[in-house]
Amino acid sequence: MKYLVLLSAALAHSANAQNVFAHFMAQNSYSYAQSDWTNDMTTAQGIGIDGFALNIAANDYEVDRIVDAYAAAEALNFKLFYSFDMSYTWAQSDMVNIVMNHSSSSANFMWKDTLLVSTYSGETYGEDFWAGFKSALAAEGINITLAPAFTTYRDPSEASTLLSTFPSIDGFFNWWSWPADVDANLTTATDLAYQSAISSRSGPYIMGSLFLPVSPWQFKNLDGAGDWVEYSDTLWNYRWEQAVSDVKPDIVEIVTWNDYGESHYIGDINPNVDLGTQAPLYVDGFVHAAWRDVAQYYISWYKNGVAPTITKDEVVFWYRAWPKAITCSTGTLPRNAAFPEDAVFALAMLKDTATITLAIGSNEVNFTGGPGITMGSVPFPPEDSQIPYIEISRDGTKVVDTHGSMYINQEGCSYYNFNPFVGSVSE
Ligand SMILES: *[C@@H]1O[C@H](CO)[C@@H](O)[C@H](O)[C@H]1NC(C)=O
Ligand SMILES: *[C@@H]1O[C@H](CO)[C@@H](O)[C@H](O)[C@H]1NC(C)=O
Ligand SMILES: *[C@@H]1O[C@H](CO)[C@@H](O)[C@H](O)[C@H]1NC(C)=O
Ligand SMILES: *[C@@H]1O[C@H](CO)[C@@H](O)[C@H](O)[C@H]1NC(C)=O
């Protein structure tokens, strides 16, 4: 146990209301056996994640893999709900059949005695489609809470239009957990506007609440013209702070567990998953596992309403392997390439005040932090092929140190890659 949580009766009560899910791309389960689901779910459960939102893109092999997902989840008391990926073409009857197929499973996440159903986008299908989807299920005796991520609703001023355009929605999942093509940190303006609007929703299965997305990163380099990076350098820390201190939603949805192509996975890279031809060029070796340690801390805070007491010093660090201005021989320079800072970022989770040393090449930075979370960074050095050094010391005595296990290079770039390597060191 890294964190010690003292639960009073009152805190335990409030804990029941808070749920954390991770967005899981069922498309990436093609090669999955039930044991792969079990591994992912056990890992997720280990940091306090209650379940997966299953991003299902088509009525194809995914429905068969989801049979295994339900079996694995039932055995672990892990929860599932569907997140229909409406950027694909769906027949309403297929969606109804998919929801019905597992509607009596104990693994379903229930919101106020109804099945929760979410989406990625889907607003262009129109209100009649969604009302029809709900009534077709109701006719089968299945009441759902519909909380879609209609992604064109991002501007805070559109929140009331969302509600008047879609009388059938019960809740809202704000997809947007990255800055919108700007060199600035994300604010909670969208979250709070939609949270306030949706809380006025009344209906038979009132949800009236917002799902808050939290995401560590955003970088995609798959299709040339459409490729991007969003300014995400410290996002994994401040977005969680917004969740626990500012928005305090009923559900937090981590975006994502396994979307490798957009670089926001916090799950392990399963070597059996076929990532296509481009994604492996920026995903292989770029492990994100240590980001889960940060999530575990904030999930505990979110569920219990208080920051957990840290019992073990740890630094989680991340960095890209090439500076943003380098010319690479293949791939495309992503949109917003100028935004990220060329630096090694370190998030210290300390049980008490300590000094963190970050060194790389001829650059060295010391910062003091703790107890709790403190962030620091050191700029990329001018020297080629350098590896960062990270040390925790207290009262002049080294507690623990390590080196990153990926080099930062100033030359030899074969593919534009803004996905960070994530490592950690702990006592
Ligand atoms: C329903 O579940 C069965 C196994 O119980 C599976 O073979 C089938 O593909 C599933 N169909 C849908 C539409 O989910
Ligand atoms: C679904 O909701 C309706 C309307 O509130 C209610 O009458 C019905 O009993 C519910 N059905 C189930 C299976 O919960
Ligand atoms: C974003 O927030 C971090 C602290 O989380 C701060 O260090 C950084 O300067 C901010 N970035 C911008 C562009 O304001
Ligand atoms: C950082 O701290 C170490 C240990 O106290 C010290 O040797 C080093 O000079 C410091 N570096 C900087 C840049 O201040």
UniProtKB/TrEMBL annotation:
Organism domain of life: Eukaryota
Keywords: Hydrolase, Signal
InterPro entries: Glyco_hydro_71
Signal sequence interval, chain numbering: 1-17
GO molecular function, one term: glucan endo-1,3-alpha-glucosidase activity
Coiled-coil boundaries: none
Protein name: Glycoside hydrolase family 71 protein
